[in-house]
Design goal:
Shape: globular
GO biological process, one term: membrane protein proteolysis
Pfam families: Peptidase_A22B
Helix content: over 70%
Number of strands: 4
GO molecular function: aspartic endopeptidase activity, intramembrane cleaving
Number of helices: 7
InterPro entries: Peptidase_A22B_SPP
Radius of gyration: 20 Å
Strand content: 5-15%
Distance between the termini: 39 Å
Keywords: Hydrolase, Protease
Structural class: mainly alpha
Length: 190
């Protein structure tokens, strides 16, 4: 009976919040990926639906990540601005990707009609989408200025959801995840 009391720390707010967040991000990623795949099949736009990684590309992920960590260690001052710029661009696009279905749903619920404003990257772009893009840019700018952990987590979650929606890992998932596990252990304890 005493051994069960040792597990009581798992019911504290931090581990519970971490577990709930992990489950919610996994569920949200899977749900968004499924909806995105259905939408691409309906539009017959399968060329943009996903990126499929083969074995050689999966093997290169831990190696290139290790090289980037070494570069950041030795050339931190020059690489950090470049990495921050790439992260900001990826965060804006992934946050826009995650929020645009919700904005479209709200637009249909309120019966708003929004004429097309222009074409951007061969896609039709509306005023509501332009406002959403500005909100995403503002969110990323607030994160760049403040570095607040909530904004950091929000942008990280949106990047995870966009990655799961766009990248397919057929038949190499286990190999890739084992490599990433070894990579993580090596760089944490090295």
């Amino acid at each position: 009976m005493e051994s069960l009391w040792k597990l009581l720390y798992l019911l504290e707010p931090a581990p519970v919040t971490l577990s709930v967040t992990a489950v919610a991000v996994t569920f949200g990623s899977a749900f968004q990926a499924l909806n995105y795949e259905k939408e691409m099949e309906q539009n017959r736009d399968l060329s943009e639906a996903s990126i499929t990684l083969d074995r050689s590309q999966a093997l290169m992920i831990p190696e290139m990540s290790s090289c980037s960590l070494l570069l950041m260690f030795y050339l931190f001052s020059s690489v950090s601005q470049l990495l921050t710029a790439f992260t900001a661009i990826a965060s804006v696009s992934s946050l826009f990707f995650c929020l645009s279905p919700h904005v479209a749903y709200l637009k249909s619920q309120f019966g708003l009609t929004d004429p097309y404003v222009s074409r951007c990257c061969s896609k039709l772009f509306t005023r509501i989408q332009a406002l959403l893009l500005l909100a995403c840019i503002g969110t990323v700018a607030a994160w760049l200025v403040s570095g607040h952990w909530i904004l950091n987590n929000l942008l990280g979650i949106s990047i995870c959801i966009a990655f799961v929606s766009h990248v397919q890992l057929p038949n190499i998932c286990a190999m890739l995840f084992i490599q990433l596990f070894v990579y993580d252990i090596f760089w944490v304890f090295f």
